[in-house]
Predict the structure of Triosephosphate isomerase.
Amino acid sequence: MRKIIVGTSWKMHIHSMKEGEKLVEGIYRSVGYVKEVEMFILPTYPMIPMIAKKLETGNIKWGAQNICMMDKGAYTGEVPPLILKELGCSYIEIGHAERRATFGETDKDVHKKVRLSLEYDMIPVVCIGETEEDKREHVGNVRLHTQVLWALNGLPIEEMKKVILAYEPVWAIGKAEAAGAEYVENIHGYVRSIIEKEYGRDVAQAIRIIYGGSVNRDNTNLLTKQENVDGLFVGRFGLNPEDFSQIVKTT
Ligand code: PEP
């Protein structure tokens, strides 16, 4: 049985500590003690200690929006994975569409980051998803197949089961509407079938596949009703405690 999980990344939208404090306090007040749903918040790096303190009690976990590909060394501007672990991070977002498009992150980079997160006992939340162009050219499935294999390949089976795949069609991010529930269910089923074919039914049934891309309080229920949708990854609507708590509660 896969536990439903709802997470939110604040990206760089929250741009002061004060704003971050207010938001985390609001979220904590409304859903901090929900037990039925696993929850996480991903703030920017410097906010992590503050978030960790605010979420010390309750059921909301936290993590980072990225991880360095390397362990330590001469990598100016990067953050060592061990420090993220020491700050209590449980989840690491990897390969978001913005990182792939704006920062040139490749599938190979994603692969390295997945391995490193698991090495430090943090759960990778790996974003996968076809672009608008992939969809138009009917190569969305090829894109997903490649991304899934790069993310998981070579991991020990028990480690592989811990990975969360976040299906985020690039064409549905930051839009007025999410992808349709039926469309999402079909894709999640396809992703699970790739995993089953490559690594077996046991792994395919264990891995959680969540959906992200314009999730809001009105489309939550329809999405999470789908058999292969194991939770949600929330963007804009995670920046408002009322929206986020409604999403968690209607999941
Ligand atoms: C995202 O960028 O990953 C995302 C899901 O954003 P939004 O919910 O705002 O579309």
